[in-house]
Every structure is written in structure tokens, then in C-alpha cells.
Design a protein that fits this description.
The chain is globular and about 65 Å long. Among the domains are: 120 residues, Butyryl-CoA Dehydrogenase, subunit A, domain 2, CATH 2.40.110.10; 125 residues, Butyryl-CoA Dehydrogenase, subunit A, domain 3 (Up-down Bundle). The chain contains 13 helices and eight strands. By secondary structure, the chain is α+β, with helices and mostly antiparallel strands. The longest helix has 32 residues.
Length: 418
């Protein structure tokens, strides 16, 4: 632990000694945590944080767990929706949406990908048609993490088919609990059903929840993806325990009861600290091959951290390298996730390959190994990230795109006719 993180640990511990009350309800505890700036310590004080480094969030959450207190709320609202709205929303939208995220009152899902628009995200066809002071939504989304437990979605929909595809998209803060929204879980090879498909049939969203302006959704989306990729690259990983909102399963419970059953590690992925602790505990810390691989994993982790810090600085000053740095951070984290899972499986042997209660430490290493394959895809496929770096930073030529300046509706009609 660095000196900076050691000082932060001491500060958090002192705060918990003064404020942790296991008899509080979860919602009361999270309101206290949010007001103190510990949910998102990497946000500025004006944004509801404490102006610390991006890695501080992981340190704070670990300190809460070691102390025995319920961790701050997690979820994609914290990783993606809140920073997007802080950067692209109006003051009224910030007041209405960001504070509930920091206080753990609402869970958010990402409604970007579609069956025909994954790697080519701008090719989405979910339609939003204006009807007075609201929009009517029709279409389908897929790979929406934890949507069954969420209250809101970061929705991308096409509001204009008569302009090129990147210019007709809008970004909405979309309520999921309403008629016309059907959410179906997708079973994964891990045995979980974190991902979901969502069907939208005449669902509605208020115009007041249009973030960044009509037709400006692609720019807002780049902001969201930047925070997703840099968050992943700094070790943020996927949304973890505890999940926010009344549908997350913890709302209304005594905070001390939930803290008592919170898992040792709430992540679906492993990092350097996890594998190092495992190697030491099972007597493999002196194995020269394991030590060599740990060194490589440590180097990747530090590069990921430094790259995330650089990306944050570039974004703050408006540097053009921010997008490419986010892509590099995401690819770095793919390497970390796969290397850490593989090393944990190798170090733990046959016992580590078992799932569930029969496996070492409850089967977390087996699950991490199976889940690690997804790291090449979530947050934007690694192939797409390489294209971004090549084209936007290295200046390599883009592939020819004859449809670039054509109205997207015309492109779709031509494809159908063809």
C-alpha cells in the first residue's frame, strides 16, 4: 500500500469509528456514506466526492469491509451514469439523478447494445419518437448487466433516421419499471444470469430526461464509454456487491446484518492483490514460476493505474488523447483479468477448478477463470479499441465507408432491398 493509500485507510478507519452504526437501515447508512463523499471519493467535492485519485474508491471499499461496515453502494450508475450526467447533464438533471446514485437509492443498467448493433454501436435501430413532452420508445437491447435489479437505464435510441447514423442518436435516463418494458435474463456459462435482453414496446421517457440534447447522443455516449473503460482499466471491473436500490435485495434491511454476509471480495474478476494473497496463503509464494507471473501481473496493474490517471488528466484539460487512453486502459484490464484468473487457477491446482462450495474459497477462482473470457468483449471489444488507437492516435487510415454521409434510414432501406 502506498503512503497515500495508507493515509486514506487511516482517515476512513477514523471516520468509521465515529459513524458506523450497524443498527441503521441500509438506506440510512448509505445516505450517511454518500453525504460524507465516500461512495465516489474520486469525484470532486462539488460533485459529491472528496477529490481523491481514481484508485481511492477501491481502497475505501476494502477498508469498509475490513472494518466490518457495509460497503458503499456499487453498480453501473456509479461507474458510468453519474459521471456522464455530471459532465453532460443540466444542473436540474444532476440534482435529480446523481444524488440518488451516490446514496444508493437507484440501480442503473446500460441499454446500449442491440442484436444488430454491438461492435458497430452507432448502427442501433431502437426508435424514439417525440410525443409532446415525452418520447415513445420501441426496440430491443441486449447484454444489459443486472437489468433485472435496476430502476433506470442509460438508453441510446435513434431520434432521427434522416441524418447519418452517428448524428441521429440521443441518450436518455430511462425508467425501467413501466408498461412496455420486458426484461429477460440470459444464463451464462458461469451459471449466473447477470446479462439480460430488454424489449421496448411503446415505452416512454420524459423529454426532461434527455441528456446532452437531441441528436447529441453519440458525443454523450463517448463520455459514458470513456468512464466505463477508464474505470475498468483502473481496476473498477464490473458492478459488484452491494447492489443499490430497492430491487437490489438489501433495501430495508439492517445495515449490520447485510455487512455480516457481504462477500470477502465482491468482484467477478481478480487482480494482483487477490492472486498474491492466494499464493502466500497456499504456500506458493516462493515458487519461481508463480513469482515471475506475479511480477508480470503487477507490472500490468501499475501500467493500468498510471494510464487511468493520465486519461483523467487528459480529459480534465480537454486533451485529444483521452479516448485512446481509455481504449488502452480497457485492453490493459483485459490482460490483467485473464492473467490473474489463469495464474490463480494454476496456483490453486485441482481444488481451485471446482465450482461453488466444493471449490477453494467458495469456487471464486473457477468462476473468475470462466468469466475472464468476457473481458475481451464488455466495455467494447478489444478489436474495436485497437481500431480507435490506430485511427485516432496513430493516424492510420480508416476503412472506406461509402455510407458515412448518407441518411441512416436510406442506408437501412438499401440493405433491406439488397
Amino acid at each position: 500500500m502506498t503512503t497515500e493509500h495508507a493515509d486514506l485507510w487511516a482517515e476512513v478507519t477514523a471516520w468509521l469509528e465515529d459513524n458506523w452504526d450497524p443498527d441503521l437501515s441500509v438506506e440510512s447508512w448509505w445516505k450517511t456514506v454518500g453525504a460524507a463523499g465516500w461512495t465516489a471519493p474520486h469525484f470532486t467535492p462539488e460533485q459529491g466526492g472528496r477529490g481523491l485519485s481514481i484508485r481511492s474508491q477501491a481502497v475505501v471499499r476494502k477498508c469498509f469491509a475490513e472494518f466490518g461496515a457495509l460497503r458503499p453502494p456499487g453498480g453501473l450508475g456509479l461507474v458510468m451514469a453519474a459521471p456522464t450526467i455530471l459532465n453532460m447533464g443540466t444542473p436540474e438533471q444532476i440534482d435529480r439523478h446523481v444524488t440518488p446514485i451516490l446514496e444508493g437509492r437507484l440501480g442503473w443498467a446500460q441499454l446500449f447494445s442491440e442484436p444488430g448493433a454491438g461492435s458497430d454501436l452507432a448502427g442501433l435501430t431502437t426508435k424514439a419518437e417525440r410525443d409532446g413532452d415525452r418520447w415513445v420508445i420501441n426496440g430491443q437491447k441486449v447484454w444489459s448487466s443486472q437489468a433485472m435489479q435496476c430502476d433506470y437505464g442509460m438508453l441510446l435510441a435513434r431520434t432521427n433516421f434522416d441524418v447519418p447514423k452517428h448524428k441521429g442518436i440521443s441518450w436518455f435516463a430511462f425508467k425501467l419499471d413501466q408498461p412496455g418494458v420486458t426484461i429477460r435474463p440470459l444464463k451464462e456459462m458461469t451459471g449466473d444470469d447477470i446479462f439480460n435482453e430488454i424489449f421496448l414496446d411503446d415505452a416512454v421517457v420524459d423529454d426532461a430526461d434527455l441528456i446532452g440534447g437531441e441528436g447529441n447522443g453519440w458525443m454523450v455516449t463517448q463520455t459514458t464509454l470513456h468512464f466505463e473503460r477508464t474505470g475498468i482499466g483502473a481496476g473498477g471491473g464490473m458492478a459488484g456487491f452491494p447492489f443499490p436500490g430497492p430491487k437490489g435485495g438489501m433495501w430495508g434491511h439492517r445495515a449490520g446484518d447485510v455487512a455480516a454476509v457481504q462477500p470477502k471480495d465482491s468482484k467477478l474478476t481478480l487482480g494482483f492483490d487477490d492472486v498474491l494473497a492466494l499464493a502466500k496463503r497456499i504456500g506458493r509464494g516462493d515458487d519461481p514460476v508463480i513469482r515471475q507471473e506475479l511480477t508480470r501481473l503487477y507490472s500490468d496493474s501499475m501500467c493500468g493505474l498510471w494510464n487511468a490517471q493520465r486519461a483523467k488528466a487528459e480529459a480534465k484539460k480537454g486533451g485529444g488523447a483521452a479516448a485512446a487512453l481509455g481504449s488502452i486502459a480497457k485492453m490493459t484490464q483485459t490482460r490483467i483479468v485473464k492473467r490473474a484468473a489463469g495464474l490463480a487457477a494454476s496456483a490453486s491446482g485441482a481444488h481451485g477448478t471446482l465450482a461453488g462450495a466444493d471449490g477453494l474459497d467458495g469456487g471464486i477462482y473457477s468462476k473468475a477463470m470462466v468469466f475472464s473470457a468476457a473481458s475481451s468483449i464488455y466495455g467494447g471489444a478489444d478489436e474495436i479499441q485497437r481500431n480507435i488507437v490506430a485511427e485516432r492516435t496513430l493516424g492510420l487510415p480508416k476503412e472506406p465507408n461509402p455510407d458515412k454521409d448518407r441518411a441512416y434510414g436510406e442506408v437501412l432501406r438499401a440493405r433491406t432491398a439488397g
